[in-house]
Design a protein that fits this description.
mainly alpha, 9 helices, 73% helix
């Protein structure tokens, strides 16, 4: 076997080793995503591509960038799932709600959250909540009933109360007496000590 053939064989072996390592990294990326660690999933998918240009790894990395935790699709899901009420699902408050714009808002969010288009985690639950909120707010009777329930819920929750600051210690008569007694005792001790020193000096002079 010539030197050139040996180099080609070594290059082929290295290429195959890189391909296997790439497949292994891709497998880890998928597992990390299933475990909920999107950051690690992206990191291992990128590592897979760096080791060997697998088409499958390239597609998976693109998918993660579109639907992973850092994507706009995931952010849209999160906003809906974390909304405190039906109004917040549509990005408005109860006071600023405009029924005439509900239809267009619902259409926009439906396109963004529909599980057929949005493959981020929780997209199906977010779409269900969107549908529920739309069903209530688009019906005048249901919305009126919901507003009453929301009002009662807010009343039950009550305003956020801050913990009052600690009060300064009261200067009571007993505290005053204690302070006076301590001051008097200290003064008497100093006076007695001064008398003793004076008597000692007189004795030394005699």
């Amino acid at each position: 076997m010539g030197e050139g053939a040996g180099e080609r064989e070594a290059a082929d072996l290295l290429k195959e080793a890189n391909r296997q390592a790439s497949e292994q990294a891709l497998s880890v990326a998928r597992r990390k995503y299933e475990e909920g660690d999107d950051e690690a999933a992206v990191r291992f998918a990128a590592k897979s591509l760096k080791l060997y240009p697998l088409d499958e790894a390239n597609k998976y990395l693109s998918w993660l960038q579109r639907f992973g935790a850092a994507s706009e699709a995931a952010a849209a899901v999160k906003r809906v799932l974390e909304a405190e009420d039906h109004y917040e699902v549509f990005g408005v408050t109860q006071q600023r709600f405009d029924g005439s714009s509900l239809k267009s808002l619902y259409r926009q969010l439906s396109l963004a959250l529909h599980p057929d288009k949005n493959h981020a985690r929780g997209a199906e639950r977010a779409f269900q909540r969107l549908s529920e909120a739309h069903g209530v707010l688009s019906d005048a009777a249901l919305r009126s009933k919901y507003d009453v329930e929301l009002h009662m819920k807010n009343l039950a929750r009550g305003p956020h109360k801050k913990k009052p600051p600690p009060q300064p210690r009261a200067y009571t008569q007993s505290n005053a007496q204690s302070h006076t007694h301590t001051h008097t005792s200290t003064h008497s001790h100093a006076y007695t000590q001064q008398q003793q020193q004076q008597q000692q000096r007189q004795q030394e002079q005699q």
